[in-house]
Specification:
The structure is a homodimer of 335-residue chains. Chain A has 335 residues and is α/β, with parallel strands linked by helices. Chain A has helices at 6-13, 17-25, 32-45, 51-58, 74-89, 103-115, 131-139, 163-176, 192-208, 222-233, 247-259, 277-280, 293-310, and strands spanning 63-68, 93-98, 120-123, 144-147, 157-161, 181-186, 211-216, 241-244, 269-271, 288-290, 318-321, 324-326. At the A-B interface, α4, α5, β2, α6 and α11 of A face α4, α5, β2, α6 and α11 of B. Chain A binds a DNA duplex (30 and 30 nucleotides) through residues 3, 5-7, 15-22, 24-25, 29-31, 34, 49-59.
Chain lengths: 335, 335
Amino acid sequence: MTTTSMKDVARAAGVSVGTVSNVLNRPEAVAEETRSRVQAAIAELGYVRNDSARQLRAGRSRTVAVVVLDVANPFFTDVVRGAEPLIESAGGVVTVCDSGEDVRRERRHLEILEEQRVLGLLITPVDDTSASWIERLSGHDIPLVLVDRGAGRHPHCSVAVDDVHGGRLAAQHLADRGHTRIAFVGGPASIPQVADRLAGCREVCDETGVALDVFTTAGLNFAAGREAVEQMLGLEERPTAMFCANDLVALGALQALTMHGVKVPQECAIIGYDDIDFAAAAAVPLSSIRQPRSQLGRTAAQLLFDEIGEGAGHTHRNVVFQPELVARASTSQEL
Amino acid sequence: MTTTSMKDVARAAGVSVGTVSNVLNRPEAVAEETRSRVQAAIAELGYVRNDSARQLRAGRSRTVAVVVLDVANPFFTDVVRGAEPLIESAGGVVTVCDSGEDVRRERRHLEILEEQRVLGLLITPVDDTSASWIERLSGHDIPLVLVDRGAGRHPHCSVAVDDVHGGRLAAQHLADRGHTRIAFVGGPASIPQVADRLAGCREVCDETGVALDVFTTAGLNFAAGREAVEQMLGLEERPTAMFCANDLVALGALQALTMHGVKVPQECAIIGYDDIDFAAAAAVPLSSIRQPRSQLGRTAAQLLFDEIGEGAGHTHRNVVFQPELVARASTSQEL
DNA sequence: ATCCCTTCATGAATCGATTCAAAATGTGCG
DNA sequence: CGCACATTTTGAATCGATTCATGAAGGGAT
C-alpha cells in the first residue's frame, strides 16, 4: 500500500508537517520558496489529502445531504439541481439519498448521515413517523430544512408548496370542464403531499357536488397509475376524469388507458401534478399542477446556509410557494 | 456542543473504551452483563459513532460512488437502482455523483472521492480525456468498474452495451421502413456512446445507400432535441426520419415536431435509444433501442466486489450486452 | 551592539475509534 | 493448593491532518 501522508511530503520537502498543512490551507502564510518546494513534493509523490483525518479534526464534514422520496422522479432531480449550485459555491459537497418512499430506508440513511456528521440536510420526509428521527438529528446539532413540506409546529425551516391549494386547482379545473364524477389516484395516504392534494380535491368536490372515487396506490410511479386504471375500468359507474397525485402516476394511467382503447380526453380526462418536463411531451400532452421545482431546491439551500451561518440565534423561516394550473390537451374536452 | 464520544460512554458504563468498541464491533466477545450495561449507556447518552474516526483508522470508507453523466436521465437512475441492492447488502453505502457530461465537474467529483478514500467506483466517464484521471484513481488502489463503456486497452473491469450494434439496429430499422435520407441527432461527439451509435448508423447508411445528415448537439437532453428540429426544419432537403442518440433527445425532438405541426411518423419518423419508461408513454409511443439498464448496474456492482474481494490476483472482466430493437408507433409508417 | 518587529517554520497536542498484546479474572483438574 | 487454560477487560499505540504556542531568523532603528 502506497498511502502517502503529509509526513512523507514533509520529509521529501525537508520541512515539518505543520508547514505542509499551511501550504494546503493558508498558502499566503508560507514563503514563496518553501511553498513551491512543498508543492513539488506533493506532485512528485502524488499525495492526496485524507478527508477522514481532516473531518475528524474539524468535527464536521462538508457534505450536505439531500434526502428525497424518489430519485427517478424528475421532480426531485430538479429540486436537487436547484440546490446544488449554492451548496457547491459554498464549498459543500452534495450527496443525494433516495428513501424510495420507505421509512426504513430513510432511517438507514439518516443513521449513516448522522455518523458522518454531515454539515446539513435537506429532507422530504416519508411520513409523520419520520418526525422523531428528524428531531434526533436536529438535537444532535445537524441543521436541516424540510423540503416540499411545511414545518407545522416543528422547529425547523421549510420550503413547501401549498398542496391543498394545488389539489383544489386540479379539482376545480375538472369541475369547470363539466365532470361530475372524478377519481383521485395516489398513495400511500401516509405521504403528506398525497393527503394534502386529496384534501384540497375533496373540498372542491364537496363544494361543487362532484362525486369522488379515491384509488389509493402503493407508490407514486408508473406502475401505480397503470394498476389504478385496471381497477377503475372494472367499475360500474366509471369516473370521467382522473386527478393523479403526481405526473408519473398520470403518465402510467395515460398509458394504460391508451392500451385499453379509452380515448383521452374524450372518454377520460387526466390531470397530473408537478409538471415535469415529460408531461408536456406525453402521448396526450398532460395537464398538470406546476410547482417551482428548482426554486424549491435553491431556497432550501439558502435557508440551510442561513441557519448554519447564524448559529444559535437563528429564527426559522417557512417559505410557502403557490402552485399553478397548466392546462393541456389531456383535459381539453368540455363535457 | 454535546458531542459524546466513546470515552464518555466508557466512563458512564464504568468500562474502558476498548470494551465499548468491542460491544459495537464484536459483541460476542463481551460478557452479557457488561454488554447490556454499555448499551444502556449508549442509549442514555444518545451516543453516535463518529464515522470519520472509524474511517481514519480503517484507511478506507465504505462508500461506493456511482458517477453518471446525468442523474435526470432515467437510464442512469435505473442503472443505479440495479447496483444498489448488491452494494448495500455488502454493507456499502451508495453515493451518486452527477458529472452532467462535463469533464470539469467530473474531475471535481473524482478529486473529492479520492480524498474520501472511497471503497470503489462505478463510473461512466464523460470522454476520453477522463482516462488519465481514472488511471490516477486506479493507481491509488481505488478499484473501479467502467459502466456503459468498454475498457478498451485499459486495465479495468467494464460492463457495456454494444453501441455500434445498437446504432446499426436503429439505422437498419429506418432503412427497412424505406427511408432514404435520415438524420442523426446527438452530441457532443466526444462522448463515446454518441460516437459509437453514430458509427453503427453510418455503417448501415453506407451499406444501404441511405443519406445521412448529422446534427451535433451540445448535450443529450430535451433541449438538444428541440434545437436540432429547429435546424432541421430549415433545410432544403429534409430527412424523413431521425435517429436520436438517446430517448431524452428523441422526446424533445418529438415535442418540437408536434409543435410545428409535423406529423410523426407520417412526415417524420423518430427512433430513440435506451427505451426508458417514458418512451412508451410518449406523445407518439417511441421506438427505441433497449439496453438492460438495471442489469448493467447489477453486473457492475458484482464485478466491483469481485475485484475488491480477489485483491491483487484479480483478472479484469469485460462484459458486453447486446441491445435490442423495440419498434413502436413513432416508426410505424412504411414509406 | 542591542532591542524590537515582522515573517516563517516547528512540533507536540488533539480529534475519536480500533487494535492487540498484556493483564485480570474465573474454572477445572490433578 | 497450585497450575493450566479459557474468558474478559484493559489501555496505550495508531491512523493523518490541523492548530497554535514557541522559537528562529532577518531587518531596522537607535
